[in-house]
Every structure is written in C-alpha cells, then in structure tokens.
Recover the amino acids of this structure.
C-alpha cells in the first residue's frame, strides 16, 4: 500500500500500511530514535482510547507496533495528527508490491464473487416464480437473493480483527489458568479484553463473522419453498381435465425432480451452516474410512455443500429441459385445448429466467467450492493473523522472569500449535514464538524504553523483578528446578 515518512516528527517517523487480498487493513508504526520520555505509552493509550489494537511487532528488521481495527488510512493518520504524534508534511511512497493479482483477490473473496453470480441467478428465479404465478417459487427466489446479497455484502471474509481478539482471549484464559503474571501494559491485556458493544454492533459483527452460515440458511429456506411448490402444484395436484396421460406423467416427473432438488438444497445448506470448519492437525496422521470423510468435510464444509448445490442445479436443468419440451409438444398439437395452450405459452415465457438461474448458479457454486468460511478451529482469514497472535504471546513471555522464559516458550508454543488455536506443528509454533521473543526484547513498544539508549543497551532484556512471596506456585517450582544442577523443566499441561 503506502509508506508515510515524517522526517520532522519527534514521536512517529514512519507509518507503513499493508492490505491483504481480502481487504484486511493494518499498519506498522515506527517510533523516532529520539522519542521523548513516556511518549510510547502516550501513543499506545491513544490507540486504546480509539479502540484500535496495537501489538509490538518487527517488520523488515524494524521494531514497530502493528495497528489494526481502523477502516481507512485517513482514520489512523487523523488520530496520530490530532495528538501531534506526526508532523504535517509526510513523504509518501507507493509500493508496487501492494498490487495483487486478480487470482489472489478471487481466491480470498470467492464467497463474495459467488454472491455476485448468485444474485443474477436468484433474480432470474424470482422472475420465473412470478411468471409461473406460484408464490412459493417467487418467495424462494427472494430467499435465494437474500442469501446471495449477504454473501456479496459480507463475503470478503476480513475476519482478522475478530480472530486476533479471539486468539488473545484464548491466550489470556490459558495464561490465567497457568498462573502467568499478566501486566496491564501488554497487548494481551488490551486486545484480549471483553468489549462492551451495543445491540446493533453485535448484530453487525455477527453478520461479518458468519456470512456463510447466514447466506446458506437463506438457501435452506429457498430449498424448502421449492420442494413445497413442487409437491403442491405438480406431484400431489389433481390433473386438469384437459390433460393427457403423457402430460400428467411429465408434470409428476418434473414435480418429483424439483422436490429432490429442493431437498438436496436443504441438506447442502445445513452442512454449510452447521458443520464447523476445522483445520487438520498437522501433527496427527490423516484419518481413513468414515473418520477420514468426516475430517475432509470439516476441512472445508463449503466445498461439500457446493457439490450438493451443483447437484440441485443440475436437477433444475433437467426439469427445465423436460418442462420446456413438454410445453413445445403441446403447442405443436393442432387441436390442443385453449386453456392448456395458454398455460404452455405462459410457461415458455417464464423458462428463460430459469435458464439464467441455472447458468449463473453453476458459476456461483463453483466459486463456493473453493471457499473457506474464514473462521473455525485453527482457521484464520490470512497468515498475518498467525504472526500477530504469536507476537501477543511473545510480548507476554518477555514480561515474565527471564530464567523461566525458555520453558514458557516451549509450553506456550505447544499451546499455540493446537488445532483449535493456530493448527501448527509444535516445532513450527515454538520456532516462531522463540523468534518473536528474541525480537521483542529490543522493541521499545514492548519494553517501553522511555528515551533513546545505545544500541547495546537496547538489546539487553529489561530485568524483571518478582517478589519471591508473590511468585505463583508453578513459577516458583520452575525457578527451583532451573537452579538444580542437571534438572529439566516440566510445566503443568492441564
């Protein structure tokens, strides 16, 4: 995206913006080398007051604070300017690396793209219902359309802010259970805090967090209405007096086809809505048999649901074709009853809208098959969420007594690697966490160095003094074990 450099500033000298393919916006704020005493805390308090998450971080070998929770660049820059943290004349550099390919954007926003295709399809089905004069089909088209509008409005799947907060809350609960010392000035205490939200905000957040569940439940309703219409108007409907046995048979077959497709739509929508997406544990072997099938479905519920939708749409195509041919045969009859002839012509007038529905639905369903819900056990919107959550854990560890930190890296790394947290291999999670801890030791946003200091001094970890009688029981045990010659560290795993 953009780099704003403030050469005349005494507090913040650089703000770098980044954006992922699904639209998640974040910034990296760098402090001036000669930042004044207490200004780091002042900037962090300003972020906290604006409900913006701030996480000490390192990017391009620079000690920065990662900032999330703002909607536009101007919002963050306005906050910094209002508090006189930046000067008025930045040098702005546009980065070519920010230009993402259409393929990257499509993969990240496939639910949204699916919604656009489905909106066209669903409009066609609603018109088909109106022209067929069946209120159930008309309402089914509108329910389809409501689900697709939801996909389009909320399907960019930018859930990074929610996921980082949830990750921080999980770490916070784990740290409390283990007896960690949790200082108030850590990102964990701020990001993991429970927020007070209005009822309207809660509703909006629910739609942002669950676009696939809401959209697919609308499709479930549409499927039920289609099945109801088919049963009522064709399968169980008494034949009209003018109908021939062949016409009655065609009507029954078309009705059965639409009943099946409605039922398949219901089943597919329920799978997409109710099955929780779950990343596979990389430390565990892949399952086989029924367990393997269940694991495959959980990895991407929308993939399985889309296959069911495609089956439903192919049923739509079949019944559309058979009903079209039946109407044409009737019209071609020289002595066709006037009433049946009028109904056939009316039906042929509605058929093109159903054809549009079939064609555009297949496109939308193909896009849905490559989509993720964007949330679930070990599921994140993008890989920057992982690094942010690891950074939160790393800052907490450097606030613990130094002689305990290696043991905490091992214990917390294994916790972060669990499938319900970040779904990483244990060794990978421990490696990432150790790297972040080492970088965090000389980050002024984490250590709160109040003023400039020689580089050698900056790289010294700040001493942490903990009163012996105030030390949690498990920490005292760790300290005792580490002092014993040849002893090994064992942390409670409950």
């Amino acid at each position: 995206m953009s780099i704003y450099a403030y050469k005349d500033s005494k507090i913040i000298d650089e703000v770098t913006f980044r954006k992922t393919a699904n639209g998640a916006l974040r910034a990296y704020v760098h402090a001036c080398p000669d930042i004044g005493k207490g200004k780091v805390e002042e900037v962090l308090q300003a972020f906290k007051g604006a409900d913006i998450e701030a996480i000490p971080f390192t990017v391009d070998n620079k000690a920065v604070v990662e900032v999330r929770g703002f909607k536009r660049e101007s919002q963050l820059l306005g906050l910094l300017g209002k508090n006189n943290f930046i000067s008025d004349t930045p040098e702005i550099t546009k980065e070519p690396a920010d230009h993402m390919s259409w393929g990257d954007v499509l993969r990240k926003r496939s639910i949204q793209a699916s919604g656009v295709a489905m909106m066209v399809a669903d409009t066609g089905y609603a018109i088909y219902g109106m022209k067929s004069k069946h209120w159930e089909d008309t309402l089914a088209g509108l329910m389809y359309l409501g689900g697709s509008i939801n996909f389009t409005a909320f399907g960019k799947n930018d859930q990074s802010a929610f996921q980082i907060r949830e990750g921080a809350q999980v770490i916070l609960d784990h740290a409390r259970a283990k007896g960690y010392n949790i200082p108030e000035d850590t990102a964990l205490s701020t990001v993991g805090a429970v927020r007070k939200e209005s009822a309207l905000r809660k509703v909006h957040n629910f739609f942002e967090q669950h676009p696939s569940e809401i959209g697919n439940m609308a499709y479930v309703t549409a499927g039920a209405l289609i099945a109801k219409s088919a049963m009522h108007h064709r399968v169980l409907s008494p034949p009209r007096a003018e109908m021939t046995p062949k016409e009655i048979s065609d009507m029954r077959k078309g009705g059965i086809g639409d009943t099946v497709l409605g039922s398949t739509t219901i089943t597919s929508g329920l799978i997409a809505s109710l099955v929780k997406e779950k990343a596979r544990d990389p430390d565990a072997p892949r399952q086989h048999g029924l367990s393997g099938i269940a694991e495959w479905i959980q990895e991407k519920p929308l993939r399985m649901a889309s296959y069911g939708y495609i089956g439903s749409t192919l049923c739509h195509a079949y019944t559309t074709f058979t009903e079209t041919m039946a109407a044409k045969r009737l019209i071609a009859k020289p002595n066709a009853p006037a009433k049946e002839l009028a109904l056939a012509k009316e039906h042929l007038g509605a058929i093109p809208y159903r054809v549009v529905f079939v064609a555009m639905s297949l496109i939308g369903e193909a896009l849905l098959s490559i989509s993720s819900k964007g949330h679930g056990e070990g599921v994140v919107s993008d890989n920057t969420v992982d690094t942010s959550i690891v950074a939160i854990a790393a800052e907490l560890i450097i606030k613990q007594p130094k002689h305990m930190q290696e043991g905490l890296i091992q214990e917390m790394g294994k916790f972060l690697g669990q499938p319900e947290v970040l779904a990483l291999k244990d060794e990978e999670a421990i490696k990432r966490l150790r790297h972040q801890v080492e970088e965090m030791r000389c980050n002024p946003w984490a250590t709160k160095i109040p003023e400039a200091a020689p580089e050698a001094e900056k790289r010294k970890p700040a001493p942490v003094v903990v009163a012996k009688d105030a030390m949690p029981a498990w920490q005292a045990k760790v300290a005792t074990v580490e002092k014993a010659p040849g002893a090994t560290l064992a942390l409670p795993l409950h």
